[in-house]
Amino acid sequence: MKFDIVIIGGGHAGIEAAYIASQFKLKIGLITMPGIPLGSAPCNPSVGGVGKGQVVRELDALGGLMGILADHAGIQFRTLNDSKGFAVQSTRVQIDKDLYAKKAEEIIVENSFIKVIREKVISIDKKNDIFSITTSETEYSASKLILTVGTFLNGKMHTGSVQTLGGRIGCEASNGLDGLLSNVKTRQQRFKTGTPPRLDKNTIDYSKLEEQPSDSTVRNFHCLHKPNQRYVAQVSCYLAKTNPDTMGIIRDNKEKSPMFNGQIKGVGARYCPSIEDKAFRYPDKNIHHVFIEPEGLDLETMYPSGISSSLPAEVQLSYVRSIEGLEKAEIKVYGYAVEYDVVDTTQLNLTLEHNELAGLYFAGQVNGTSGYEEAAGQGFIAGVNAALSFLNLEPLILNRHESYIGVMIEDLTSNLRDEPYRLFTARSENRLYIREDNTLQRMNPYRTQLLLHEEIDQYQVRFLAKYKNLMDFCDETMIPETSELLVQFSGPTELQKLVRRLSVSELLRQGWLNPITTLEKTLQHYGLQVDGDLIKTVAISKKYDGYIKRSEDQNERLKKMDSMKIDWQKIISSGNVSFECKQRIERIRPETFGQLKLIEGIRPATLVVVASKAL
Amino acid sequence: MKFLYSDDLIIACSTCTQAHAALAVIRISGFKDLAVFQGLFRFSGPIEPRRVYYTQLIHQNEVIDDICLTFFKGPHSFNGENILELSIHGNTLNVERILNLFIQQGCRLASPGEFTYRALKNKKLSLSQVEGLDLFLNANSGFALDQGLSLLSGQLHQIYDELYDLFLKHKSALELSIDFIDDIGEETAHSYFHSSLQDFKKKFEQLHRRVLPLDINLIQPEIVIAGLPNSGKSSLFNLLLRDDRAIVSSQAGTTRDFLSEIVVISGVKYKIFDTAGIRSSEDFIEAEGIKRSRAKMANSFFKILLINPFEMDPEFNTFAHQSFDAVFFTHSDLDGFNEARSKVLTQYPFLGPMGAFDLKNFTDLHENELFGLVNKKYLNLTKDKPILLDRHKTLINQVHLQLENYVNLTSYETDVAVISHELNTLASCLTELLGIVSPDQVLHSIFSNFCIGK
Q1: CA angle A290-A272-A584, nearest 5°?
Q2: Do B304 and B173 have their domain in common?
Q3: Quick check: is B217 in a domain?
Q4: Phi-psi region of A346 (alpha: psi -120 to 50; beta: other; left: phi over 0)
Q5: Residue B400 Cα, gap to closest chain A Cα (Å)
Q6: Which of A113, A259, B294, B407 is deepest in the core (most CB within 10 A)?
């Protein structure tokens, strides 16, 4: 069978790639391992989080799938960093894993442009610009091929000394995709990830744990969904804590841990340590948070976030039961670690297409990232660009100054990482602008570039027109000094007395006022009815206006400096660059200062010397 | 600045070329292989690095000079390149002839600082070390010499490195409270944020205290003699130099521009200036001289005001509004001096050290009194090891202002994103001093100091 685009892998990257490509009405084949549902969540049962919430909303505005699925399966909603300022607030939704996968199946399988093929891929080849994919059953061909194979490239699982081949518990292994892929460089160092044991939810004493209920005011991800509508019943998460006994049990069993006895050689992420990591790297610390999260309304398991482990089963049970509230807990599925091969992402360009093998794209965990959101973001970029390339249209490249997806793609392709990559807001230089509330303003120009006409496109046009009106209203409406509004908004100190005529925009910038409630009350005062999303984004945009202008100037300067041409050969020939760093520069061959800066291990002093044009 | 990109063979005489001397040292840098020069030396065996060879320089079968040569093989040379160092006889003609000989072999005369620049380029010296070298080579006092050496050996850099680490820790603390609050908890994040800021601030303020106002130039300290026309400025200038350099006449307005000479006081070289007397002049050239005098006055190290109490003028008001390091009354030998002086002092009450003398009977005692004041000020200003280089002074002052703003902001702002925005502004200020702080370094610092992750 012949396809325009074939995607191998039905995880979060794969379904996102298929979903966006289908909007171009192309013929898409999605090949996935038999037995794994589409969009399944093998690790933590949540979507979003600091920085990641922004990614989900960016995807949603670009026409992605993740937000829709998360809303439908959302069983607990929270805004993280609630008290810390609008720019760093992010949405996180606990999902019902079953419902999430069911909704994904429903949307993808029913899509008339996507054919879901549940077969095991044996080999891949490329002849005359056409890819041929041989599966256990038959053979397919495609003009573009996207690989989203997650941890399945030579995956190997560990629980204690028991080792199994495969990328996920209960799934077959997909060994070395030979043939064409022998031309794709993988990192020499394999990566490792892990997952905690799953607890029987009926064996936990919740009265001993701190409850974290769902927040009914959190806005849904998908822009067309009613802001606070919930599709399923809401439940709570719980907070437990490890104690000296817990950590003692782990420390006593060091020689049984594949991570510490040399059995596992892959590199795990430092931000996602196993409980063994915590025990041995921080010997003085015995109290660690363990979030007990439901995996689904009808599922019998709870996910204890924070104690991922590859220790033998009996040790896992013993340390779990040392935790208050979990004394009688039963383990349904034991934790394990998995090692897998990772593609060298510096061979990919900003569309995630391979530099030398045209038409071949990589997205998701196979690129060395961790997290469903990171995978989905890449899946989208690979999917949309494969489609655009098939149609001979300009590629879609998100700027790092405007989106977290852009930050991630640039980081990945310009730099070889030493550990699995996760998004942090710290990775962005433009945090005040890359917010959840203004996602539509940021993403609409990109979405428009796709020339698609779906319901969300019409919604965005209407929303942005209203946004402009309200922004203008704030600039143009002057509040007279006699207005009772100003008395109401004056602060307690002398400096905070509002005694002169000022515009609504100026009012919203006053440091002691919450811009959202201030704008709400002002609009009420003028008898205007405006919806909540609009008020929120206008109020926050006005609040940050001055800062953002300043940071735009700074970014402008930065961009100028970043685009400065450099001579990488000269840099490596100058004695004082470390050997490792030299190798990286040689591989990446940075042409600009910006690219050089992103290379890991470059010394600050080197950068300053280069920046001062001394080289 | 073409030399920034060139890797030519460069040559220069590294010792004084202005006068004949017993020896001169010539340096050649940037050659790939010593063989290109070997025909020029009588010694024909292999030349090992870091050994001194006594040989003859030969050109067209004639001996040019008896020399000692040393080969420093890159990267183990002061600038990282292959360097050939020749000790030759110091006659200036000989030096010139030998330089020309090598220029014929493809060398180019080095631009000033080019050897050192290559050391910077090859990371043999940091920017601060280069600045230190410059200070060291051109120092006018033992103190400047010391600071040059300390920069050269990277001591100041060590302080910068420590500051860099403290800044990184603070930035990590802020990021910790945004991206990892679930892992670390509000309380720990809060206390770490504030303690890391205090640590950075404390260390930075120590550095900032070593920055004197920009207008005090300790690298080339200047002494200025000011006063109304005919108050005796040029006479004093000559007396101090024991020389008749300034033209002295009793006609007012003789010194039309300023004159300068070097005077050494307690081992420190000062430039001493005789300025044009300040008065409203019809004469264009004199007016220009006066303008330049005023500018000179503004940024000199030590200001002396001379007053002839018998010849006061409304123009004197301009002096009354300035501060002087010493005020001297001249013409103390004339009758009615004490009355005249009292009259001036009632109208213009000066603070600080004051004295009186008669320029016709100026003695060592008077000179010691004056120089003692200069030396006292110098010792006072240098006792806390002030930073001498303007680039560093300016940067440290900028960071200081930005840091004050930032600390102030953190006392009331609750929006972490705004705080982090301001911290980035501070970071860009710090960059030139300390180097660039990248997100990866911040994350690395977080991961290596805190237990993060679920």
Answers
A1: 170
A2: no
A3: no
A4: alpha
A5: 20
A6: A259
Test A282 with B451 for CB contact under 8 angstroms.
Answer: yes
Q: Which two tokens stand for residue A242?
A: 């490890």
- The CATH code of domain A455-553 reads 1.10.10.1800
- Which residues from A are below 8 Å from B424, CB to CB? 429, 551, 554
Residues of A (305-324) whose Cβ lies below 8 Å from B: 305-306, 308
Query: A333: closest CA among A365, A381, A291, A301?
Result: A301
- Count chain A–chain B contacts defined by CB atoms under 8 A: 143
A51 to chain B, minimum CA–CA distance in Å?
Answer: 8
For residue A368, give the nearest of A420, A300, A422 by alpha carbon: A420
Q: State the SS3 of A340-405.
A: ECCECHHHECCCCEECCCCCEEECCHHHCECCHHHHHHHHHHHHHHHHHHHCCCCCCCCCCCCCHH
Same domain? B94 vs B187 = no
How many other CB atoms are found less than 10 A from the CB of residue B206? 12
Q: What CATH number has the domain bearing residue B356?
A: 3.40.50.300
Q: Is A55 left (phi over 0), alpha (psi -120 to 50) or beta?
A: alpha
Residue A72 identity (one-letter amino acid): H
Interface list for A 276-305 with B (CB within 8 A) = 278, 281-282, 285, 288-289, 291, 305
Question: Rounded to an integer, what distance in angstroms lies between the CA atom of residue A475 and that of residue A470?
Answer: 9
Which CATH number is B193's domain given? 1.20.120.430
Q: Which domain holds residue B279?
A: 222-382
pLDDT per residue rounded down to tens, chain B (454 residues): 344 556 788 888 888 767 778 889 999 998 888 888 878 888 878 888 999 999 999 888 888 899 999 999 988 888 888 999 999 998 888 888 898 888 888 888 887 667 777 777 776 776 666 666 666 666 666 666 676 666 666 667 778 888 888 988 898 888 888 888 777 778 888 889 999 999 999 999 988 888 877 667 777 788 888 888 878 888 888 888 776 555 555 555 555 566 778 888 888 888 888 876 555 556 666 666 667 667 777 778 888 888 888 888 887 887 777 788 888 888 888 888 888 888 888 888 877 777 777 777 788 888 888 888 988 888 888 877 777 777 778 788 888 999 999 999 898 888 888 898 888 888 877 776 665 555 565 566 555 555 544 3
Q: Are A590 and B422 in contact (CB under 8 A)?
A: no
Domain shared by B251 and B366, yes or no: yes
CA distance linking residue A22 with residue A27, whole number of Å = 7
pTM confidence score: 0.73
Nearest to B420 among A431, A607, A613 (CB): A431
Q: Which fold has domain A563-611?
A: DNA polymerase; domain 1 (1.10.150)
Domain boundary pick from B341, B362, B382:
B382
Give residue A393's identity as a one-letter amino acid code: L
| Distance between A475 CA and the closest CA of chain B, angstroms | 22
Would you state the structure tokens that stand for residue A582, as one six-digit string?
A: 């030299």
Give how far Cα B346 sits from Cα of B279, B340, B342, Å.
22, 10, 6
Which CATH number, 3.40.50.150, 3.40.50.1980, 3.40.50.300, 3.50.50.60, labels domain A2-189+340-449?
Answer: 3.50.50.60
Q: What are the φ and ψ backbone dihedral angles of B358, each rounded to 5 degrees?
A: -110, 120
Q: Are A334 and A233 in contact (CB under 8 A)?
A: no
For residue A505, the one-letter residue type is S
Residues of B in contact with A282 (CB under 8 A): 451
Contacts of A289 in chain B (CB under 8 A): 182-183, 185, 454
B chain contacts of residue A606, beta-carbon cutoff 8 Å = 123
List of chain B residues whose C-beta atoms are within 8 Å of the C-beta of residue A50: 178-179, 181
Total count of domains within chain B: 3
